[in-house]
Write a structure and sequence with these properties.
Elements (H helix, E strand, L loop, with lengths): L2 H22 L5 H9 L7 E2 L11 H6 L4 E5 L8 E4 L6 E3 L5 E3 L4 E2 L3 E4 L3 E2 L5 E2 L5 H12 L3 E5 L20 E4 L2 E3 L3
Parallel strand pairs: 1-2, 1-7, 7-10, 10-11
Antiparallel strand pairs: 2-3, 3-6, 4-5, 8-9, 11-12
Keywords: ATP-binding, Ligase, Magnesium, Metal-binding, Nucleotide-binding
Catalytic activity: (6S)-5-formyl-5,6,7,8-tetrahydrofolate + ATP = (6R)-5,10-methenyltetrahydrofolate + ADP + phosphate
Pfam families: 5-FTHF_cyc-lig
């Protein structure tokens, strides 16, 4: 394991503990802040996620979005995500890593993404689970046109500085139960 990989692994461990404690306290006003942040994008195609473990839950906001909504599907290690159309009533199956995904449905290409994370910093960097799926996906989407990545997290998930590497894609905005954070 490289030094950066070890640093990220330790940061991930600490961040998971902070997220678990925050999750136990409830989600507060996070949904209202996320709804407000998304209003500027109107019905633009949106990608959210179906939460696992102690991730903050965006489903209520996704269900109210006026445009198409998709959720991520992992195709395999080293590959970008695809996004399959989602509605709250559709049947789900277990995908990779236990994440629920729609049983079937068309792909959508999002212009706005609600991104799950383990930790974030005020520069807009996120610490994910370590697979690089969102970094590859954001890089590919941004190469094709304007793409906005909104990290969705508990305020307790903030850290001083996320360890980064050249392939890490920054977030454009972070939303917590305390409100929006615009990266500097």
């Amino acid at each position: 394991m490289t030094d950066l990989a070890a640093i990220k692994a330790e940061a991930r461990k600490e961040a998971f503990a902070r997220r678990k404690a925050a999750f136990a306290g409830g989600q507060g006003a996070a949904c209202e802040h996320l709804t407000s942040a998304l209003m500027r994008f109107g019905p633009a195609p949106l990608a959210g996620y179906l939460p696992i473990r102690t991730e903050i839950d965006p489903r209520r906001v996704m269900a109210a979005h006026p445009g198409p909504v998709g959720v991520p599907v992992i195709l395999g290690p080293g590959r970008a995500l695809i996004f399959r159309a989602w509605t709250p009533e559709m049947p789900l199956v277990e995908g990779e890593y236990g994440a629920p995904i729609p049983q079937s449905g068309p792909e959508i290409t999002p212009r706005v993404l609600i991104v799950p994370l383990v930790a974030f910093d005020r520069r807009g960097y996120r610490l994910g689970y370590g697979g690089g799926f969102y970094d590859r996906t954001l890089e590919a989407l941004r190469a094709k046109g304007p793409t906005t990545a909104i990290g969705y997290a508990f305020a307790a998930q903030e850290m001083e500085a996320v360890p980064v590497e050249p392939t890490d894609q920054p977030l454009d905005l972070i939303v917590t139960e305390q409100g929006p954070i615009w990266p500097r």
